[in-house]
Design goal:
Layout (H helix, E strand, L loop, with lengths): L16 E5 L4 H12 L3 E5 L15 H15 L4 E4 L15 H29 L2 E5 L12 H22 L4 E7 L5 H4 L4 H10 L8 H12 L10 E4 L16
Parallel strand pairs: 1-2, 1-3, 3-4, 4-5, 5-6
Helix pairs in contact: 1-7, 2-3, 3-4
Length: 252
């Protein structure tokens, strides 16, 4: 009686080349690892640099175009783009926001997404690829003292829908994820015991999330498994935007 080894399951992103911005930490770094575990070749872009590329300022359109050409020169294709790079400035009431901080949120969170997407547009058209933009639950519901960040992430959500409509005719899918409270370095530096307790009460699933949990959703949206999905702005927030949990509602 002969024995046979179990059939190998093909990696869902085998043979694909994906560019991830903001790849050096947080959701971006975890997304890189998830994509690689799914078989993708990943090129990371980040202001602080990555093993695949030197430091890249995504607000510099010419530098981004040069980085895009370098990817094509080395790999010959780009099948996916994850626009994860983002910043948040000081949490202040709207009337106290420094205009320079307001502009900086838009320059990085929106402008960086535009620059990377434009630079890789032709390559994504050639491959029939996919884009995933990282917005925030703040694009869907407001949080206190985050007007600049909220406005910029709301713009990312709106941009996603516009890109999806414009690029559908050339076969490029564009979606966004809106992460809730996720244990990234950017979030952790703002966390206090009081905020942690409030988040745990307010999130229906009762906890913050790991960056790789967001990365797994991003990986799905990049993959052929999501071939019918475009123009979606998806909350990945443990139910935060679904409603208020544990209200003391009486019987009808």
């Amino acid at each position: 009686m002969s024995s046979s080894s179990p059939a190998q399951v093909p990696a869902p992103l085998g043979g694909k080349v994906v560019v991830v911005t903001g790849a050096a930490s947080g959701i971006g770094a975890s997304t890189v690892e998830v994509l690689r575990s799914q078989g993708a070749t990943v090129v990371g872009w980040d202001l602080s640099g990555t093993p695949e590329a030197g430091p890249l300022d995504l607000t510099d359109a010419a530098a981004v175009r040069a980085a895009a050409q370098a990817v094509l020169d080395e790999h010959g294709q780009v099948d996916g783009l994850v626009n994860c790079a983002g910043i948040i400035t000081a949490n202040l009431p709207m009337e106290e926001i420094d205009p320079a901080d307001f502009r900086r949120n838009f320059d990085v969170n929106v402008g960086g997404t535009v620059n990377a997407s434009q630079a890789l547009h032709a390559a994504l058209v050639a491959s029939g690829g996919a884009v995933v933009n990282v917005a925030s639950q703040a694009a869907l519901v407001s949080l206190p003292h985050q007007a600049a960040y909220t406005a910029s992430k709301g713009a990312v959500a709106a941009l996603t829908r516009a890109m999806a409509i414009d690029w559908a005719e050339v076969g490029v899918r564009v979606n966004a994820v809106c992460p809730g409270f996720t244990a990234t370095p950017m979030a952790i530096q703002q966390m206090t015991p009081e905020l942690d307790a409030a988040v745990s009460r307010r999130v229906p699933l009762g906890r913050m999330f790991k960056p790789e949990e967001i990365g797994s959703v991003i990986s799905f949206l990049v993959s052929p498994a999501a071939s019918a999905v475009t123009g979606v702005v998806m909350a990945v927030d443990g139910g935060w935007t679904a409603g208020e949990p544990a209200l003391p509602m009486g019987a009808a």
